Amino acid sequence: MGVPFRQACQEKKFVITAEIGPPKGTDIEPLIHHIELLKDKVDGLNVTDNQSSVMRVSSMAVCRLILDHGGEPILQLTCRDRNRLALQSELLSAWVLGIRNVLCLTGDYVTVGDHPQAKPVFDLDSVQLLVTVSGMNEGKDLAGNDLQGKTDFFAGAVVTPEADPIEPQIIKFHKKIAAGAQFFQTQAIYDLDNFKRFLDRAQPNGVKLLAGIVLLVSAGMARYMNKNVPGIMVPDHLIDRLASAPKGKAIEMGIQIAGEMIRKIRDEKLCDGVHIMAIGKEERVPDILRTAE
Amino acid sequence: MIVAKRKPLEQIEGFLEGAERVLVVGCGTCVAVCMAGGEKEVEILAEQLRMRAKLAGRRQQIDEVTVTRQCDREYFAPLAACVDQYDLLLSTACGAGVQFLAERFDHKPVLPALNTLFIGVAEGPGVWSQRCTACADCILDQTGGICPMTMCAKNLLNGPCGGTNHGKCEVDGTKDCAWTLIYRRLEKLGRLDLLKKIQLPKDYSVATKPARFTHEAFQKAENQEP
């Protein structure tokens, strides 16, 4: 087993995390394969929480499986499906199962997922969830009650560098830091000049910031994201490169692009590391890392 | 005001199955303003139901009456004399009015002709939009007069989520992002400091259902009731 993610953030010059999506169903063979494939190549494995509001195996269960296989899990916890009792219970449960890192998110709205009729919860928001984690790290629950044994989570949050307008995003970024976020993993970035401008404005001092890298698998995917995913902007020159790839080889170009971006971010010391989201193509993460070397 | 819209005619017609004499009871307040259940709408609905009955060969008497408000007992008085002539009352009030009418005439079936939508405002002719969720703890002083509890799909209290999209909301691209609106308003008012303050979790206990409120001037009188 490698070093804890918190320690990697303190000691390493460049930290790498990757995202794993739990399966929809009980067949965990591919998941275990991905864990085995990635656990020694990255400093932490994020596990999504009913990603895109699609019902799946829980983040906590997969985090525990990662621990069982010798990896370092980062629990993603959203406010969509649980009220403050359930969120705190989840945090205590994660801690007693050995999970030490938590990424606090608002969560997608329910209507984008596969149970659009569900009642959305959003009892807390991401800032309030961070306040909750900080309190539990001090031995108190949200109601001020003492805990018999406290947590010591390494808490993180997300930020969208391409958000428009950017000002309220930056204000919220600083509220997340004030609420206890120690690391950030960003929404996907593709334009490093924009990213530099964001960093200049946001001044992420005192926290670890990992740039989000989403693997592009085709020009069509890039255009789709530009049109449909808020906060993602793939520049035309990257779309042209994907489109110019021979038939069936666009993903190789995507891997090339991701690798180049990681290399640039590392060589130019833009931030503290990267968070790779391969979204269903987890088996290609080692190829991205090789290209980035 | 309360905004409502009429249920599909087929559903309303289904409610009337087996009833020979029906009284459609309109409400002259909010639902009259939003053109869902006032005097005019009751007239149209009753006429439509009469036509459907006739076309289907049903012997059904459908009468109509509109009271000032169905959420106030005093306006039910004129109904008391005639209700017994009917098998069924069809109310075009909001959900509150339907229940109050049903409570007053609890020996008759009282059925809803409308779906109650929200507390809102008239944006323009024939267009209403939600503005308040009645959370019982108003925070409009902190948010530039724009309610994130209502205007943000996720009722976030500390700023926009990652789904904010060039001023629109990812949940519905035709709707504004509440937090972009709040940011712009506070910027205009020179009060961006309000946005920087961490808002702690909301106290939902103050909005425990069913809510009841007695004006303090009447509290003593209420306590003295046997």
Overview of the molecule:
The complex is a heterodimer of chains A (293) and B (226). By secondary structure, chain A is an alpha/beta fold. Chain A has one domain (5-216, 270-283): TIM Barrel. Chain A contains eleven helices and eight strands. Chain A has helices at 5-11, 29-38, 59-68, 84-96, 126-137, 167-178, 192-202, 219-228, 236-244, 250-267, 285-292; strands spanning 15-20, 44-47, 73-78, 101-105, 154-159, 183-188, 208-214, 273-277. In chain A, strands 1-2-3-4-5-6-7-8 form an eight-stranded parallel β-barrel, surrounded by seven helices. In chain A, α5 (126-137) links the parallel β4 and β5. In chain A, α4 packs across α5 (126-137) and α8 (219-228) packs antiparallel against α9 (236-244). In chain A, 49% of the residues are buried. Chain B has 226 residues and is of the alpha/beta class. Chain B has two domains: 2-118, 3-Layer(aba) Sandwich (Rossmann fold); 136-201, no CATH class. Chain B has helices spanning 9-15, 30-33, 39-55, 77-80, 95-104, 148-151, 178-188, 193-196, 216-224, and strands at residues 2-6, 21-27, 61-67, 88-91, 110-112, 114-124, 127-132, 164-165, 168-169. Chain B has a four-stranded parallel β-sheet with strand order 3-2-4-5, with helices on both faces. Chain B has a three-stranded antiparallel β-sheet with strand order 1-6-7. In chain B, strands 8-9 form a two-stranded antiparallel sheet. In chain B, a hairpin with a 2-residue loop joins β6 (114-124) and β7 (127-132). The model of chain B has no long low-confidence stretch (mean pLDDT 96). The A-B interface holds A 79-80, 84, 106-109, 111-112, 120, 122-128, 131-132, 142, 158, 160, 163-165, 167-169, 171-172, 174-175, 178-179, 187, 230-231 and B 153-167, 170-171, 179-180, 182-183, 187, 192, 195-196, 198-202, 204.
